[in-house]
Amino acid sequence: MSVSSSVRRVTAVAAVAAAAVGAVALPASAADHHPGRARAAVFISEVQYDSPGRDDRSNRSLNREWVEITNSTRRVVNLDGWTLEDEDGHSYTFDHFRLDGRATVRVHTGIGRDTRTDVFQDRRNYVWDNRFDTATLRNDRDRFVDEVSWGYDRDHRGGDHHRHGGDRGHRH
User: Fold this and answer.
1) Long-range pairs of 70-73 with CB within 8 A, sequence gap ≥ 24
2) How confident is the model at residue 138 (pLDDT cuts 50, 70, 90)?
3) What pLDDT is recorded for position 40?
4) N or C end: fewer C-beta atoms under 10 angstroms in the chain?
5) For residue 49, how many other CB atoms are within 10 A of its CB?
6) What integer is the mean pLDDT of 20-47?
């Protein structure tokens, strides 16, 4: 009887140790954003934080600064109440917007008319810092969905970085 209880105890300890190792290994693979691997259903797919040309604050220039959000599933995702925010707290909230399956929406900084593929923050100033910033996507319950960071200070952080749009951003 004492042999089987000690075997049970060793087995339980081994199971806990295996679970702990598994729990430690999961975040590393979940943070790994290589193409072909599992990723979130909705994610920030590209960022153009530095509007091409001169930063003259024209509406055209403001709208050439954008963040793309992609739905990788076949299902429509209701983004109503989801937010996209920078490090300074500038926030855009999706209002009655549904993102089709296998579709991407581009969130422009300037003023414009919303469509199924392009929405506008209706701002008169740039949001995304050209030197360094982070675009954070949260769902309607304020839960973290995804983020993309860029800037020289970000290059020294640990983890796997995935560049978007050439040198446009790093995924964490």
Assistant:
1) 70/42, 70/43, 70/44, 70/45, 70/103, 70/104, 71/41, 71/42, 71/99, 71/100, 71/101, 71/102, 71/103, 71/104, 72/39, 72/40, 72/41, 72/42, 72/43, 72/102, 73/41, 73/101, 73/102
2) very high
3) 77
4) N
5) 25
6) 54
